[in-house]
Specification:
With 168 residues, the protein is mostly helical. Helix content is 46%, strand content 4%. A two-stranded antiparallel sheet has the order 1-2.
Length: 168
């Protein structure tokens, strides 16, 4: 009998999945770590971070996608209020402008939704092939607000190289 797929042995894959046995995107893994229903929209994760990571997860090459494993643990507990979402969307706006070589974001971007800004920022990192910077930016978004502990969340996860990564 095969071992059950858990947060400890799931492989990150592109797209949505019906269950961890089919794979999981970084957001679905975060839902598992948070002790929530298996979903790519976990309540314990900031929606700005979720938009950024869903886009990045789906566009990253399979081998590089696995670098998102510790990110899944870091984002649990990042859901916050409207102001925190606004600040994180602002960071996406500024980074997107910098990635595109602009000194500052175009004024019209103030009218864009936070989900578009976050996803477009991830797309731009992908197009530029700036993987390490994209991962670092995900951690910057997390650092904006202190992650709150989530009741029932897994306290740590072991990533493939054997180094534990704290979940929150």
């Amino acid at each position: 009998m095969a071992d059950a797929t858990t947060h400890q042995n799931v492989r990150l894959a592109r797209g949505q999945h019906a269950s961890p046995d089919q794979g999981a995107c970084v957001m679905e893994l975060a839902s598992m770590l948070a002790g929530e229903r298996f979903s790519d929209h976990p309540r314990a994760v900031c929606p700005v971070i979720g938009s950024y990571l869903r886009r990045y997860n789906d566009g990253a090459p399979d081998d590089r996608r696995q670098d998102l494993l510790p990110v899944a643990a870091a984002i649990v507990g990042t859901a916050g209020d409207r102001e925190l979402r606004r600040i994180r969307a602002g960071l996406c706006r500024v980074r997107l402008a910098a990635l595109r070589g602009a000194e500052r974001p175009p004024r019209r971007w103030t009218l864009c939704s936070w989900s578009w800004l976050a996803a477009e920022c991830a797309r731009t990192f992908l197009r530029a092939g700036r993987h390490d910077e994209a991962i670092a930016f995900a951690h910057e978004l997390v650092a904006v607000g202190r992650p709150r502990p989530v009741a029932g969340a897994v306290s740590d996860v072991t990533v493939p190289d054997g180094a534990p990564a704290a979940a929150g």
